[in-house]
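Per reviewer request, we include the raw input and output of the structure prediction for the construct analysed in the revised manuscript.
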Amino acid sequence: MASSPYTDLTRPPLAVRALQRALIVPGGLWQRLDVVAETGSTNADVSQAAQGGAGEGLVVIAEQQVSGRGRRDRQWVSPPRAGLTLSVLLRPGLADPDRGWVPAPHRTWGWLPLLAGVALREAVERIGEIDATLKWPNDLLLPDENPTGRATGRAAEEGEGRTAEQGEGRAAEEGEGRAAEEREGRAAEEGDGRAGEPAGNAGQEPPRGKTAGILAEVAGDAVVVGIGLNVSTRADELPETNGLPATSLLVSGAKSTDRDPLLRALLRGFAQWYAGWREAGGDAEMCGLLAAYRRGCSTIGREVRVLLPDGGVITGVASTVDGDGQLVVRTVDGSERRVSAGDVLHVR
Protein backbone atom coordinates (compact mmCIF):
# COMPACT_ATOMS: atom_id res chain seq x y z
CA MET A 1 0.00 0.00 0.00
CA ALA A 2 1.31 3.44 -0.86
CA SER A 3 2.16 5.60 2.11
CA SER A 4 0.05 8.62 2.93
CA PRO A 5 0.31 11.52 5.36
CA TYR A 6 -1.96 9.55 7.69
CA THR A 7 -0.06 6.24 7.64
CA ASP A 8 1.22 6.88 11.18
CA LEU A 9 -1.83 8.07 13.09
CA THR A 10 0.31 8.93 16.12
CA ARG A 11 2.10 11.52 14.00
CA PRO A 12 -0.51 13.45 12.02
CA PRO A 13 0.56 16.12 9.55
CA LEU A 14 0.46 19.76 10.51
CA ALA A 15 -2.83 21.56 9.92
CA VAL A 16 -1.40 23.97 7.37
CA ARG A 17 -4.41 26.16 6.65
CA ALA A 18 -5.29 26.54 10.32
CA LEU A 19 -1.69 27.51 11.08
CA GLN A 20 -1.68 30.06 8.29
CA ARG A 21 -4.93 31.61 9.51
CA ALA A 22 -3.62 31.79 13.07
CA LEU A 23 -0.15 33.12 12.34
CA ILE A 24 -0.41 35.32 9.25
CA VAL A 25 -2.29 38.35 10.52
CA PRO A 26 -2.40 42.01 9.46
CA GLY A 27 0.56 43.89 10.85
CA GLY A 28 2.21 40.70 12.06
CA LEU A 29 5.76 39.52 11.47
CA TRP A 30 4.89 36.35 9.59
CA GLN A 31 3.95 37.03 5.99
CA ARG A 32 4.15 33.59 4.42
CA LEU A 33 4.13 30.09 5.90
CA ASP A 34 4.95 27.09 3.74
CA VAL A 35 4.85 23.46 4.88
CA VAL A 36 6.61 20.93 2.68
CA ALA A 37 6.46 17.16 2.98
CA GLU A 38 10.21 16.76 2.57
CA THR A 39 13.25 18.88 1.89
CA GLY A 40 16.97 18.69 2.14
CA SER A 41 17.38 21.64 4.51
CA THR A 42 14.93 24.33 5.50
CA ASN A 43 17.82 26.69 6.17
CA ALA A 44 19.10 26.16 2.64
CA ASP A 45 15.62 26.73 1.23
CA VAL A 46 15.12 29.98 3.12
CA SER A 47 18.65 31.17 2.37
CA GLN A 48 17.95 30.68 -1.32
CA ALA A 49 14.69 32.59 -0.98
CA ALA A 50 16.54 35.41 0.79
CA GLN A 51 19.04 35.63 -2.04
CA GLY A 52 16.09 35.85 -4.42
CA GLY A 53 14.72 38.88 -2.60
CA ALA A 54 12.11 37.30 -0.35
CA GLY A 55 10.88 39.63 2.34
CA GLU A 56 11.10 39.33 6.08
CA GLY A 57 8.59 36.98 7.67
CA LEU A 58 8.93 33.88 5.49
CA VAL A 59 8.56 30.60 7.40
CA VAL A 60 9.38 27.21 5.86
CA ILE A 61 8.51 24.05 7.78
CA ALA A 62 9.44 20.54 6.70
CA GLU A 63 7.58 17.43 7.80
CA GLN A 64 10.84 15.62 7.11
CA GLN A 65 14.31 17.04 6.57
CA VAL A 66 16.72 14.62 4.92
CA SER A 67 19.94 16.61 4.57
CA GLY A 68 19.93 18.91 7.55
CA ARG A 69 23.28 20.41 8.49
CA GLY A 70 24.48 20.28 12.03
CA ARG A 71 27.89 20.77 13.52
CA ARG A 72 30.78 20.00 11.23
CA ASP A 73 28.22 19.68 8.41
CA ARG A 74 26.95 16.37 9.77
CA GLN A 75 23.83 15.02 8.16
CA TRP A 76 20.78 14.56 10.32
CA VAL A 77 17.58 12.70 9.57
CA SER A 78 14.57 11.92 11.72
CA PRO A 79 11.24 10.14 11.25
CA PRO A 80 8.60 12.06 9.30
CA ARG A 81 6.38 14.30 11.44
CA ALA A 82 8.26 13.37 14.62
CA GLY A 83 9.44 16.91 15.30
CA LEU A 84 9.35 20.53 14.27
CA THR A 85 11.92 21.52 11.67
CA LEU A 86 11.62 25.09 10.45
CA SER A 87 13.52 28.15 9.32
CA VAL A 88 12.49 31.79 9.32
CA LEU A 89 13.74 34.77 7.33
CA LEU A 90 14.56 38.02 9.12
CA ARG A 91 15.99 41.26 7.80
CA PRO A 92 17.07 43.11 10.95
CA GLY A 93 19.31 45.48 9.01
CA LEU A 94 16.40 47.09 7.17
CA ALA A 95 14.21 49.85 8.55
CA ASP A 96 10.47 49.27 8.80
CA PRO A 97 8.77 52.68 8.85
CA ASP A 98 5.31 51.16 9.29
CA ARG A 99 6.39 49.66 12.60
CA GLY A 100 8.78 52.44 13.54
CA TRP A 101 11.77 50.09 13.42
CA VAL A 102 15.21 51.41 12.63
CA PRO A 103 17.95 49.05 11.40
CA ALA A 104 19.36 46.93 14.21
CA PRO A 105 23.17 47.27 14.38
CA HIS A 106 24.97 44.30 12.89
CA ARG A 107 26.80 43.68 16.15
CA THR A 108 23.46 42.90 17.83
CA TRP A 109 22.39 40.19 15.40
CA GLY A 110 24.06 37.54 17.52
CA TRP A 111 21.05 37.82 19.82
CA LEU A 112 18.67 36.38 17.23
CA PRO A 113 19.44 32.69 17.84
CA LEU A 114 19.33 33.33 21.59
CA LEU A 115 15.98 35.07 21.11
CA ALA A 116 14.78 31.96 19.28
CA GLY A 117 15.96 29.86 22.20
CA VAL A 118 13.96 31.94 24.67
CA ALA A 119 10.82 31.68 22.53
CA LEU A 120 11.30 27.93 22.10
CA ARG A 121 11.82 27.32 25.80
CA GLU A 122 8.70 29.30 26.68
CA ALA A 123 6.60 27.43 24.11
CA VAL A 124 7.78 24.01 25.26
CA GLU A 125 7.17 24.82 28.92
CA ARG A 126 3.72 26.24 28.25
CA ILE A 127 2.42 23.61 25.84
CA GLY A 128 4.40 20.60 27.03
CA GLU A 129 4.01 21.46 30.73
CA ILE A 130 7.59 20.37 31.33
CA ASP A 131 10.63 22.06 32.83
CA ALA A 132 13.00 23.22 30.09
CA THR A 133 16.31 25.05 30.29
CA LEU A 134 18.81 26.52 27.86
CA LYS A 135 22.41 25.40 27.67
CA TRP A 136 24.47 28.30 26.36
CA PRO A 137 24.01 29.44 23.75
CA ASN A 138 20.72 27.84 22.69
CA ASP A 139 20.46 24.07 23.16
CA LEU A 140 17.13 23.21 24.78
CA LEU A 141 17.43 20.67 27.59
CA LEU A 142 14.70 18.54 29.15
CA PRO A 143 14.77 16.14 32.11
CA ASP A 144 16.16 12.77 31.08
CA GLU A 145 16.03 10.17 33.82
CA ASN A 146 17.25 7.30 31.65
CA PRO A 147 19.84 8.68 29.21
CA THR A 148 21.82 5.48 28.66
CA GLY A 149 22.56 4.85 25.01
CA ARG A 150 21.14 8.07 23.69
CA ALA A 151 23.04 11.12 22.57
CA THR A 152 22.94 14.17 20.41
CA GLY A 153 19.89 14.42 18.18
CA ARG A 154 19.27 16.52 15.13
CA ALA A 155 18.56 19.74 16.85
CA ALA A 156 21.15 19.09 19.50
CA GLU A 157 23.86 18.96 16.89
CA GLU A 158 23.08 22.33 15.39
CA GLY A 159 25.06 25.47 15.95
CA GLU A 160 28.34 26.26 17.61
CA GLY A 161 27.43 29.12 19.85
CA ARG A 162 29.00 31.86 17.80
CA THR A 163 27.69 35.40 17.74
CA ALA A 164 26.29 36.52 14.42
CA GLU A 165 28.76 39.36 14.15
CA GLN A 166 31.41 36.69 13.68
CA GLY A 167 29.32 34.77 11.21
CA GLU A 168 29.33 36.73 7.97
CA GLY A 169 29.19 34.37 5.04
CA ARG A 170 28.92 31.32 7.30
CA ALA A 171 26.83 29.98 10.13
CA ALA A 172 26.51 32.51 12.88
CA GLU A 173 25.61 29.63 15.13
CA GLU A 174 26.92 26.17 14.52
CA GLY A 175 26.02 24.14 17.50
CA GLU A 176 27.38 22.88 20.62
CA GLY A 177 30.07 20.54 20.28
CA ARG A 178 32.86 19.33 18.16
CA ALA A 179 34.68 16.03 18.42
CA ALA A 180 36.31 17.23 21.61
CA GLU A 181 32.95 17.09 23.35
CA GLU A 182 32.47 13.54 22.22
CA ARG A 183 35.90 12.60 23.54
CA GLU A 184 34.92 14.07 26.88
CA GLY A 185 31.86 11.87 26.74
CA ARG A 186 28.50 12.15 28.33
CA ALA A 187 30.03 11.81 31.80
CA ALA A 188 31.38 15.32 31.48
CA GLU A 189 27.83 16.59 31.39
CA GLU A 190 25.26 16.23 34.13
CA GLY A 191 21.78 17.48 34.87
CA ASP A 192 21.24 21.15 34.63
CA GLY A 193 19.72 23.35 37.29
CA ARG A 194 16.26 24.70 36.96
CA ALA A 195 16.05 28.04 35.28
CA GLY A 196 16.64 30.84 37.70
CA GLU A 197 17.81 28.70 40.63
CA PRO A 198 20.97 29.59 42.51
CA ALA A 199 24.14 27.93 41.30
CA GLY A 200 24.37 25.89 44.46
CA ASN A 201 21.22 24.01 43.51
CA ALA A 202 22.34 23.14 39.99
CA GLY A 203 24.04 19.90 40.93
CA GLN A 204 20.89 18.62 42.66
CA GLU A 205 18.95 18.45 39.43
CA PRO A 206 18.31 15.23 37.49
CA PRO A 207 20.19 14.54 34.26
CA ARG A 208 19.01 16.35 31.18
CA GLY A 209 19.12 15.60 27.50
CA LYS A 210 19.01 17.83 24.44
CA THR A 211 15.77 18.06 22.59
CA ALA A 212 16.40 21.07 20.36
CA GLY A 213 18.97 23.38 18.90
CA ILE A 214 19.20 26.39 16.67
CA LEU A 215 21.28 27.29 13.63
CA ALA A 216 21.46 30.89 12.40
CA GLU A 217 23.14 32.03 9.21
CA VAL A 218 23.85 35.53 7.99
CA ALA A 219 23.49 36.37 4.30
CA GLY A 220 23.88 40.05 3.50
CA ASP A 221 21.13 41.94 5.29
CA ALA A 222 19.23 38.74 6.03
CA VAL A 223 19.43 36.29 8.91
CA VAL A 224 18.02 32.79 8.55
CA VAL A 225 17.20 31.15 11.86
CA GLY A 226 16.63 27.41 11.82
CA ILE A 227 15.01 25.55 14.71
CA GLY A 228 14.80 21.82 15.24
CA LEU A 229 12.77 20.24 18.03
CA ASN A 230 12.40 16.53 18.78
CA VAL A 231 8.74 16.10 19.68
CA SER A 232 7.41 12.54 19.37
CA THR A 233 10.70 10.81 18.58
CA ARG A 234 10.82 7.52 20.50
CA ALA A 235 13.84 6.45 22.53
CA ASP A 236 14.81 3.79 20.00
CA GLU A 237 14.74 6.40 17.21
CA LEU A 238 17.17 8.80 18.87
CA PRO A 239 20.73 8.66 17.52
CA GLU A 240 23.65 7.47 19.60
CA THR A 241 26.95 9.26 20.11
CA ASN A 242 29.28 9.78 23.04
CA GLY A 243 28.01 13.27 23.80
CA LEU A 244 25.17 14.60 25.91
CA PRO A 245 22.16 12.34 25.27
CA ALA A 246 19.34 13.33 23.00
CA THR A 247 15.78 13.27 24.16
CA SER A 248 12.35 14.38 22.94
CA LEU A 249 9.22 15.77 24.48
CA LEU A 250 7.75 12.26 24.35
CA VAL A 251 10.72 10.58 26.01
CA SER A 252 10.99 13.27 28.69
CA GLY A 253 7.33 12.95 29.64
CA ALA A 254 5.82 16.17 28.29
CA LYS A 255 2.08 16.49 28.85
CA SER A 256 1.50 17.24 25.16
CA THR A 257 3.28 16.30 21.96
CA ASP A 258 0.81 18.04 19.66
CA ARG A 259 2.94 19.92 17.15
CA ASP A 260 0.30 22.42 16.03
CA PRO A 261 -0.07 24.31 19.33
CA LEU A 262 3.68 24.05 19.87
CA LEU A 263 4.34 25.70 16.53
CA ARG A 264 1.76 28.42 17.13
CA ALA A 265 3.21 29.19 20.55
CA LEU A 266 6.76 29.20 19.23
CA LEU A 267 6.12 31.53 16.30
CA ARG A 268 3.89 33.88 18.28
CA GLY A 269 6.47 34.10 21.05
CA PHE A 270 9.26 34.60 18.53
CA ALA A 271 7.35 37.42 16.85
CA GLN A 272 6.69 39.14 20.18
CA TRP A 273 10.32 38.97 21.28
CA TYR A 274 11.54 40.07 17.86
CA ALA A 275 9.21 43.07 17.85
CA GLY A 276 10.43 44.14 21.26
CA TRP A 277 14.05 43.67 20.24
CA ARG A 278 13.56 45.72 17.06
CA GLU A 279 11.70 48.46 18.93
CA ALA A 280 14.67 48.63 21.32
CA GLY A 281 17.09 48.99 18.41
CA GLY A 282 18.58 45.56 19.06
CA ASP A 283 19.22 46.27 22.75
CA ALA A 284 18.60 42.93 24.49
CA GLU A 285 18.66 44.45 27.96
CA MET A 286 16.23 47.24 27.16
CA CYS A 287 13.60 44.90 25.74
CA GLY A 288 13.88 42.36 28.56
CA LEU A 289 15.41 39.65 26.40
CA LEU A 290 18.65 39.50 28.36
CA ALA A 291 16.81 38.98 31.65
CA ALA A 292 14.57 36.30 30.13
CA TYR A 293 17.56 34.49 28.70
CA ARG A 294 19.42 34.56 32.00
CA ARG A 295 16.37 33.17 33.82
CA GLY A 296 16.20 30.22 31.48
CA CYS A 297 19.92 29.47 31.08
CA SER A 298 21.07 26.59 33.26
CA THR A 299 24.70 27.15 32.27
CA ILE A 300 24.83 30.21 34.52
CA GLY A 301 26.21 29.31 37.93
CA ARG A 302 27.71 26.03 36.82
CA GLU A 303 31.27 24.84 36.65
CA VAL A 304 32.10 24.58 32.96
CA ARG A 305 34.82 23.64 30.54
CA VAL A 306 34.79 25.69 27.35
CA LEU A 307 36.51 24.24 24.30
CA LEU A 308 37.57 27.18 22.16
CA PRO A 309 37.72 27.17 18.35
CA ASP A 310 41.51 27.54 18.45
CA GLY A 311 41.88 24.43 20.60
CA GLY A 312 42.23 26.27 23.90
CA VAL A 313 40.27 25.38 27.01
CA ILE A 314 38.76 27.62 29.69
CA THR A 315 37.73 26.13 33.02
CA GLY A 316 35.76 27.97 35.65
CA VAL A 317 32.28 28.99 36.73
CA ALA A 318 29.87 30.53 34.23
CA SER A 319 28.91 33.68 36.12
CA THR A 320 26.51 35.28 33.65
CA VAL A 321 25.66 36.07 30.04
CA ASP A 322 26.49 39.66 29.09
CA GLY A 323 24.66 42.20 26.98
CA ASP A 324 26.29 40.89 23.81
CA GLY A 325 25.16 37.32 24.48
CA GLN A 326 28.65 36.21 25.48
CA LEU A 327 29.20 33.68 28.25
CA VAL A 328 31.24 35.15 31.11
CA VAL A 329 33.44 32.57 32.85
CA ARG A 330 35.23 33.28 36.12
CA THR A 331 38.41 31.20 36.12
CA VAL A 332 40.24 29.71 39.09
CA ASP A 333 42.59 32.70 39.26
CA GLY A 334 39.64 35.06 39.65
CA SER A 335 39.82 36.57 36.18
CA GLU A 336 36.85 36.79 33.82
CA ARG A 337 36.85 35.45 30.28
CA ARG A 338 34.13 36.34 27.80
CA VAL A 339 33.28 33.62 25.32
CA SER A 340 31.50 34.33 22.06
CA ALA A 341 32.30 31.00 20.41
CA GLY A 342 33.01 27.65 21.99
CA ASP A 343 31.71 24.29 23.08
CA VAL A 344 30.50 24.33 26.67
CA LEU A 345 30.55 21.29 28.94
CA HIS A 346 28.69 21.33 32.25
CA VAL A 347 31.22 19.68 34.55
CA ARG A 348 30.40 17.50 37.55
